[in-house]
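Objective 1b: paired records.
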Amino acid sequence: MTILSSTLDLTSPEAQAAATAMREQLAEIDVEVAKAVAGGGDKYMARHHGRGKLAARERIELLLDLESPFLELATLAGYGSDFTIGGSVVAGIGLVSGVECLVVANDPTVKGGASNPWSLKKSLRMHEIALANRLPVISLVESGGADLPTQKDIFIPGGAIFRNLTRLSKEGIPTIALVFGNSTAGGAYLPGMSDHVVMIEEQSKVFLAGPPLVKAATGEESDEESLGGADMHARVSGLADHFARDEQDAIRIGRDIVSRLNHRKAAGPATAEPKPPRYPAGDLLSIVPPDLKSPFDPREVIARIVDDSDFDEFKPLYGSSLVTGWAQLHGFPVGILANARGVLFSEESQKATQFIQLANRSNTPLLFLHNTTGYMVGKEYEQGGIIKHGAMMINAVSNSTVPHISVLLGNSYGAGHYGMCGRAYDPRFVFTWPSARSSVMGAQQLADVAYSVSKASALAQDKPFDEEGAQAMRAFIEGKITAEALPMVLSGLVYDDGIIDPRDTRDVLGIALSAIHTAPVEGTSSFGVFRM
């Protein structure tokens, strides 16, 4: 039998402590998400509505198919910075006229939708997702252009926004711009480089320079309508392909455009009516211990996210610190690699390498569930070849061409983060649980290393060692690394695509897998040289 059994006791003190800690972390994250949803705040939202305009999320809601899910991505971009959380952009994946699309909407309540460094980083990540998964891109445009005080951080790299639109078009991935307000300066090229452009009567304004700048540059007197209004672009310049009467009309036209794209998925689910897991999703709150030094069985997670809790484990008796096996999730085949006891040994590395090769031979996407402190260290393991075996696993991950999805459940430290397909290894999606932590190593270990190095340096130079000062520095470093490893910090840097409630994991992964299958899923038999 390949149906997973569960030994999780929800009444145990360990499970209750885990659930309590997870709920507390979720509550902290909800506070920050609410800030992103609020955009520029009540004052600017009221002013925006007072102009008869819809908010970014209201536009998205009207654009999407009725009652269809919307997987919002990078919601906390900019957390911990001086900028409004969310990067003045709302983005995610949803169904429009039955087609999975990547939607990117400027939030005009945040400095008029001006682009800042986090807007740029978030938008570029969205383009990566669209290109890799062949998702049509719908831009809901209302932006005054660059946030000028930050121009040095966005002008030069920001050109990639327009380059990406043309590359998407070249690859046959449709790009659609619905212009709801200003799209000025460099931002004028956003509709200019989209395949389909919709503008709204007396509301859309698209020009390289507004009347004041034109006056200063050329002495010419002009007004916004004749310079860049929707009527002019529809009748004279030809930039507007469709002329809408109001925002609702523009959204209707946008939906009609998508319905006529003839854009088809490469494949659907292998099972049309998959069975749900045999265990409740709510149990997922009770699995990861508050102290990540304590191990947990990832099979308890797998049993609550895969179809029918059916998991065909591969090499269960070999390299047992890494669980590998085959399953379906919302009907889509998937290979799963999940850390069981944190440390990766040579056996786990070799097991992972073979499993990744098999997934590529069968064109099966891979799901990595992280809880690793890295590869094992020590004389015995160095002599046993841990470097070459770890390199073998990283080689396989690096050159695998089937889609990868990573979910950080607990620890994700050191080279183990790389071997488990961290962000630098181009997974199609990266999601994080509130319980996750990620850094070069654990905070305590890093602080201990820094302390030992400073002490050894003093002794080597025959200098007096300040024990009290070193201990203070040790405590400072540990606190600093602990803070930097938190999921909200990493999500704020757009190192993941969002922190998710564990109870939503199955559905989030289902949307991601469905999006992945818009593009062909093709494995490879070509890898770098494996050191044996």
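Objective 1b, second protein:
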Amino acid sequence: MKTLIPPAEDEHKRLPQATQELSVPEIDRILQELSGTEIEKLIITLAEMDGEPLLPTKELPTRYAVNTLALTEEDLHARTVLRRMFLKAGMTIEEHPLGLIATYEGENSKLPAIGMLSHYDSVPTAGMYDGTVGILSAIHIVQTLKKHRIKPRRSIKIIALTGEESARFNIALFGSKGMFHGLSEAELKMHDSQGITIENAIEEIGFDPNQVKKPRFSRKDFEAIIEFHVAQDDRFPDKLSVIEAIAAPERYKLEIGRKPVETHKHKSTDRFLTLTVNGKTGHSGATPMGSRYRTDGLVLSAELITEIHSLNTQLAQQLGTKPPIVIGNLNIEGQAMNKIPGKVTIPVCITGNDSAQVEKQLLELLARQQTKLAKQYRNKSIIAVTTEQQKQGTFYDPQVMQERQLKTMQAIKDVNRIANLCTRSKCVGTVTTYATANGVITVGIDLRGINETSRRRMIAKIKQEILATADLKFSDPLPGSGLPEVMDRQLVTQTQQVVQKLGLPFIKTFSPAGHDIQNVRRAGIKTVMIQCPSRNGGIAHTPDEYSTPLDLEWGAKAMAALVIELAEKS
């Protein structure tokens, strides 16, 4: 087989040579025809269905921000595009409430199939690559097999899942959970911000929710399943990653305050500002801790609000009044349980008879903070201030809310600080969501690790620190929480051998972000994951995520060679 580029030296020395040559006719020509450019075209075709057009970049003259939330109209539109692609690839299609199942028939349909799997749903304002790369690369592979009239011994199935992201229902991986295990009544009752449950949403898009209460597949249906995904970090920018283990989240909601709070009674002299903290979003699991990798808008907001309330206390004492600065509900743009908060807007009301003087002191404080943060994060506009003509959102009694907000800000800082101390054990922790209702503040916490002992130690420390503060309430672990998962060792080794034969650079490593393949592995099926490099610093869950056509081509060739080798197995 033609060598594309030199193999990764460190892996080449350690691995045994593959014991079995690929036996499919014209396999070398098949692999050479796989094209990252063609996969990129498929990515754009899917994204343009409902995506928001964006300004071109040097790499991508055509690009979109994707908003394909699970079980929505946009979800159905994506299925329509994928259905056309499956049919063009000569596949039969099964409709399922949680996605599409496409089959390329082999010579012996009674043998357990070989699967390729990923997801097409997204977080709000997402990029085009997360999840869809695996599905569209799989389609490109089958299209090429069909073109050359190659029919392997085993059937090949592509499973295009929805519900991988926790963006809508605050539960991750529920599509693969339903497909391979079935969803519980509690999981079906998980709801979005509008109160629509997963069960309701399945009915609204025309399916029977009873279908997802039992698994569609079992271990006897598959010989093996592979997931190809973008890396979502920049640990290995010039190599494929063969994933041997996957971290998993444990998620909580933290409630601050238990009794409702009266709304603030505004005066005609009240002045209003909006503070914008320009953080940088990213994947809460895949992005390493530390300011080198993260510009967490909520952590920055916590530092800022703590300073504002310190000034507030001083001013209240000087003026002999209630705190004159009232902070409203923080709004995180496109917030989701698996996203690092990016842009955060903070509505501010300045009240009392000395509002002009208070505003002056507040603006001076903000200028000092801007200078400090701009130097630390190399962003000259990390804090923006705008004057509003009228109030934005709801403001509550400042005396009560100041105490609650300070406790919340301390909790945000504690999670960030403790997770930073756990980086050597490959743990990450993020406060991902923030909401206020009737004065009660609720935040979502995403805690991850590849090793359950290390993750448990981090969680215990966070709870110990936060619960030491009175009036806080931790939820039980939320649905979607799970244990780290180890891939099939034999299949991991076989994948390494296949990639080595192709001459592609690679590394065996772990994935800090969770993926659907974990639920497949928990069903007792042999699994492995392949990841291609992510560019632009490895960012994810943002329109700026990007992998080059060559990156995509590497991953597609590796998956194709492995799938064909497995599909030819007797």
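Residues 398-421 form the longest helix (24 residues). The chain has two domains: 9-247+484-567, 250-474.
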